[in-house]
Design brief:
The protein is of the alpha+beta class. The chain contains five helices and nine strands, in the order E-H-E-H-H-E-E-H-E-E-H-E-E-E. The two termini are 13 Å apart. The model has no long low-confidence stretch (mean pLDDT 95).
Length: 178
């Protein structure tokens, strides 16, 4: 499957400050998710930070972690936040977003998230439960969160493009199990 890779676009000071932090835990199975949630009980209440790495593997870190730390400073296929619920079959994802101001992934990164959940055998929603639309203003260069389909820069009132334009993306092929 060919997917988009997103580079870190957040403040360089944040990248440097978390360079020594541990990389997010790889979640390749429902059993690994269960073990991670047992060792991070706050995540059951608060949710978690996630990325999907370039191999298609879901990585988790505590909720207030920086996405760039969770990703080990690398490019990602997706990034955002997850919330969990316990079901009769085990844990699954109840809410998922692409909310990451460090990577600002397009909503099209859902394909990578869905594939990571499927590979790990984790159930979840059919799409983002909270979708964030990021655009960079072509006039002033500021990053914007588009709300209610209002594609106007909050800083200079310029029109924002309909298509994602935060940074350069590259296509990567993700094959096999992570």
């Amino acid at each position: 499957m060919e997917l988009e890779a997103y580079s870190y676009v957040g403040p360089e000071a944040i990248r440097r400050s978390v360079a020594a932090h541990p990389v997010g835990a790889s979640i390749r199975s429902a059993a690994e998710l269960d073990r991670w949630l047992q060792s991070h009980p706050d995540a059951v209440r608060e949710g978690a930070t996630y990325v999907v790495d370039l191999t298609g593997c879901l990585r988790l870190a505590p909720r207030r972690s920086e996405h760039v730390a969770c990703a080990g400073g690398e490019e990602v296929l997706a990034a955002g936040e997850l919330h969990f619920r316990k079901t009769a079959q085990g844990w699954d994802v109840s809410e998922v977003s692409n909310q990451s101001t460090g990577y600002c992934p397009d909503t099209s990164c859902w394909a990578a998230v869905a594939q990571a959940f499927s590979r790990a055998g984790i159930g979840g929603p059919a799409g983002f439960t909270h979708e964030i639309v990021f655009r960079r203003c072509p006039r002033c260069g500021e990053l914007n969160l588009v709300k209610e389909q209002w594609f106007v820069c909050a800083f200079c009132d310029a029109d924002l493009p309909a298509q994602w334009n935060v940074a350069t993306r590259r296509r990567v092929v993700v094959t096999g199990a992570p």
